[in-house]
Amino acid sequence: MTIKWITMLAALAGLHLLQATPVRAVRPNPLLTPGTASAAGAADVCRPGFAQQMRAVPESIKRQIYSEYNVVPQRGERFEIDHLIPLELGGANDRHNLWPQPFAGTWTAGQKDRLENALHRDICHGREPLEQAQEDIKQDWIGAYIRRFGPQEGAANGD
Predict the structure, then answer these.
(1) How many separate domains does the chain show?
(2) With contact defined as beta carbons under 8 Å apart, do 37 and 90 qualify?
(3) How far apart are CA 156 and CA 159, in angstroms?
(4) To the nearest whole number, what is the mean pLDDT of the chain?
(5) Cβ–Cβ under 8 Å, residues 65 and 28
(6) Where are the alpha helices (DSSP H) in the chain?
(7) Which of 17, 125, 156, 158 is most solvent-facing, going by the fewest CB within 10 Å?
(8) pLDDT tens for each residue of 72-94
(9) Which domain does 41 fall in, by range?
(10) How many CB atoms lie within 10 A of CB 28?
């Protein structure tokens, strides 16, 4: 089902789909980015260089993601096309796993990277199952961050 059909059905049902906007896109829209895992297992993701092999996202896909999210970075705004389920945790290099994440604001790409690195270490040391880490970050990466590191300034603002 295409995004246009999902949007149309939601409008008919009286639902308002939140459009991500610059600097407020701290969580991906689950209709656009539900999160997709690859078939990789824990042994795969813990192999040195695993994520680097799959890192490249074509510019055409990046433009498509920005367009779907109605994000047009203005001068001085910085985003990255991020994997909701990170490659380091077996995320797929697929458009349903990609979203524009800001570098500025209350919950940033840097904070998500910190969480991803901690989860990767725990998986590779046998302290957390890969599937659980994938699900936690997919469902609510900010909640997973708070559970691991404690609340940050963004939590008080309801972001």
Answers:
(1) 1
(2) yes
(3) 8
(4) 82
(5) no
(6) 3-12, 42-45, 59-68, 109-124, 130-149, 153-156
(7) 158
(8) 877 666 888 999 999 999 999 99
(9) 3-156
(10) 23
pTM of the model: 0.78
The total number of residues shown for the chain amounts to 159
For residue range 60-73, what is the model confidence (pLDDT) as tens digits? 999 999 999 998 87
Report the range out of 2-16, 37-51, 95-109 with the highest average pLDDT.
Answer: 37-51
Report the chain's terminal Cα–Cα distance, integer Å: 29
d(CA 107, CA 114) in angstroms, rounded, equals 11
Under 8 Å between Cβ of 16 and 41:
no
Q: How far, in Å, CA of 44 to CA of 133, rounded?
A: 15
Asked whether 91 and 36 are in contact (CB, 8 A), the reply is yes
Neighbours of 102 (CB within 10 A): 23
